[in-house]
Specification:
The complex is a heterodimer. Chain A is built from five helices and five strands. By secondary structure, chain A is α/β, with parallel strands linked by helices. In chain A, helix 2 (about 45-55) packs across helix 4. Chain A is elongated, with a radius of gyration of 26 Å. By secondary structure, chain B is mainly alpha-helical. The longest helix of chain B has about 45 residues, at about 280-325. The chains are: A alpha/beta, B mainly alpha. Chains A and B meet through helix 1, helix 2, helix 4 and strand 2 of A and helix 4, helix 5, helix 17 and helix 20 of B.
């Protein structure tokens, strides 16, 4: 008798738990299912990320072309504020896109930027600034969206 | 759409290679269940192509490499068809209306995963760890450039991680003709489909009830982590693939323990040996399976075979480490070298790690009631089903989780809890299909003997 009761209780418990599991599951999966399809294309993922982060169309192509225009023999330094997840992601994606170019990330607080840049050998290094807006020294450089500035290595006079 | 056809061709060559390899393994089987053959064809095919591409890529590049790997695939496919002529295939018969209904819903769920895949981009790991390597390998003619392994500016992509997934992706690029982050995602719903067919098969075998097998495969989609979190199937991570391979390896170990079949032993050895090739954590899953299998194999086949069984995974780990040394790859960034003294000095990390694990397991928006159900299943099994298979499931379910928690004693992150929070949730996924098998066993112990399968 005891084992029968136990078996009945077990079946009821499992039935309830599985109904609850399915109900919660349907709700959670339907939340995850909303949203548009991503546009097809060889750079579907990097485009989706960079479009949001840089605010430009066809960002993967533009960034790759821009980096390819820089002197291949000279490394690139990517300067961005510390603890800035968006800049970090832009850096990783640019490093991904621009293989085999050497591209190194350096984080710096805005008030230390001028000092840091003055220590860099500008003739041997190209610079990319992320989320630094007050840069009159590089006013003529290529801007990519509102947050990114690409500065080629300086030509020796 | 023009890229869909070459992508499908690449997937078919992998299926073909796996079909041949599976037929060679199953050649002495009295009957071959299609629900077992299909997933095994995928698992073995992807392994054959990725290993062939990686190893042959050391000496060949570009078109010759593609031709050679395609020839291997076609050769295996032809061998498979030759063996299939004398094989006895088992097609599910006498399906009742509820079985048909569950099979139909499972098909709809798989279709949903195909749809969801193209609603999401590749995630962080999917893009910057796995696809990045595939892209660089393809651009270098099929093999990762040696310079990549020692490039200090690309350490974020973990050059030391194994290449299973990246090589499969690179294989698709060979067929498409250029890296394509969109169509490469087709791998993942195929993986899900094959995984669910296998889960239904294994669940039906373990519970001796087809309906229960189909039910647990249906329930799997209701784990929100699969479709909503980093690590899920739609973002191109390696966690679902490794969980399916782990589940399949466990299944064949159980078949071997039950039937003493050489064929099951070979399947187990191959799948368990492949685990470290899929993901770094595969080494831990391999250890868990080795601990569980060693006494079983020892009792059935003696010490030599038991020792040899451990070699399958160990040799792959050793070869990979040797390759990394040859390439001058830097050491892993996330962990410091293991030592007993360090383990003791960091023992205080264990409590917070376990607490994080518990909090994660009980988060409904990520895991639904999965881990509550697993606890209930363990209780049910302990009450109604005190058999060897129950002990095997428990070991293979709990041991990897325990070992994963212990690895954080050696975390090199400044805040180890941040490391735990960012990686442990994904690791739980590795044992999720096995948790479903535990639930299948628990349901079997309560179910009426209806819809039995052989």
């Amino acid at each position: 008798m005891n084992s029968r009761v136990l078996l009945f209780a077990g079946r009821c418990t499992w039935a309830l738990v599985m109904v609850a599991f399915a109900a919660i599951g349907v709700r959670e999966v339907s939340i995850g299912a909303v949203g548009k399809f991503i546009p097809a294309g060889p750079s579907a993922s990097t485009d989706a990320y960079l479009k949001t982060l840089l605010g430009i169309q066809q960002p993967s192509r533009i960034c790759t072309e821009l980096i390819n225009r820089l002197d291949a023999a000279k490394p690139i330094i990517f300067l961005c504020p510390p603890r800035d997840a968006e800049s970090d992601f832009v850096y990783y994606t640019m490093a991904y896109l621009t293989w085999p170019r050497q591209i190194r990330k350096v984080t710096v607080e805005p008030d230390g930027l001028t000092n840091l840049v003055s220590t860099i050998d500008r003739a041997r290094t190209a610079l990319i600034f992320s989320k630094f807006h007050d840069l009159p020294e590089f006013a003529g450089s290529q801007r990519v969206g509102p947050n990114l500035l690409v500065v080629p290595a300086a030509t020796p006079k | 759409m023009s890229r869909l056809l070459p992508t499908l061709a690449a997937l078919l060559t992998m299926f073909g290679a796996g079909f041949g390899a599976s037929m060679i393994l199953f050649r002495r089987a009295e009957r071959i269940a299609l629900s077992q053959l299909l997933p095994m064809s995928w698992l073995l095919g992807t392994a054959v192509v990725s290993l062939a591409l990686w190893s042959l890529g050391l000496v060949l590049r570009g078109m010759p490499l593609q031709i050679l790997v395609t020839s291997i695939s076609l050769g295996l496919t032809a061998a498979g068809f030759a063996l299939a002529r004398n094989a006895n295939f088992e097609i599910p018969r006498e399906m009742r209306w509820l079985d048909n209904c569950l099979a139909g819903v499972l098909c709809l769920q798989i279709a949903l995963i195909f749809v969801l895949t193209f609603k999401h981009t590749l995630g962080w790991d999917g893009l910057l760890i796995w696809e990045l390597k595939a892209r660089y390998a393809y651009l270098n003619g099929g093999a990762l450039p040696a310079a990549y392994f020692s490039d200090a500016t690309r350490t974020f992509s973990h050059p030391e991680y194994p290449l299973y997934l990246s090589m499969i992706e690179a294989w698709i690029y060979f067929w498409v003709g250029e890296p394509d982050q969109y169509w490469v995602k087709l791998i993942f719903p195929v993986y899900y489909a094959m995984g669910m067919i296998f889960l239904a098969h294994a669940g039906a075998s373990l519970s001796a009830n087809r309906r229960i097998g189909l039910l647990v495969a249906n329930l799997f989609l209701f784990i929100p982590f699969l479709t909503r979190a980093a690590g899920g199937i739609v973002l191109g991570y390696a966690d679902v693939p490794i969980s399916i391979m782990y589940c399949a390896a466990f299944y064949f170990l159980w078949i071997f323990a039950r039937t003493d079949s050489n064929q099951a032993l070979w399947n187990f050895l191959i799948l368990t040996g492949l685990l470290p090739w899929v993901k770094k954590e595969g080494a831990i899953l391999w250890i868990a399976l080795a601990c569980c299998s060693a006494p079983i194999i020892f009792r059935r086949r003696g010490l030599t075979v038991s020792a040899l069984s451990v070699l399958s995974g160990a040799s792959l780990i050793a070869i990979w480490q040797l390759y990394l040394r040859m390439m001058h790859a830097g050491p892993a960034q996330d962990f410091v070298p293991v030592s007993v003294s360090l383990a003791f000095s960091n023992l205080n990390r264990l409590g917070p790690t376990l607490q994080t694990l518990l909090e994660e397991m009980t988060t409904l928006s990520r895991w639904n009631l999965l881990w509550y159900m697993t606890a209930l299943a363990i209780l049910s099994v302990a009450l109604f089903d005190r058999t060897r298979r129950a002990i095997m499931v428990l070991i293979c379910l709990m041991l990897p989780l325990a070992l994963y928690c212990l690895t954080y004693l050696f975390s090199s992150w400044p805040d180890y809890l941040h490391h735990v929070e960012s990686s442990l949730p994904r690791l739980l996924l590795h044992v999720a299909p096995l948790a479903m098998l535990a639930i299948a066993m628990a349901l079997a112990s309560l179910a009426r003997p209806t819809g039995k399968v052989n």
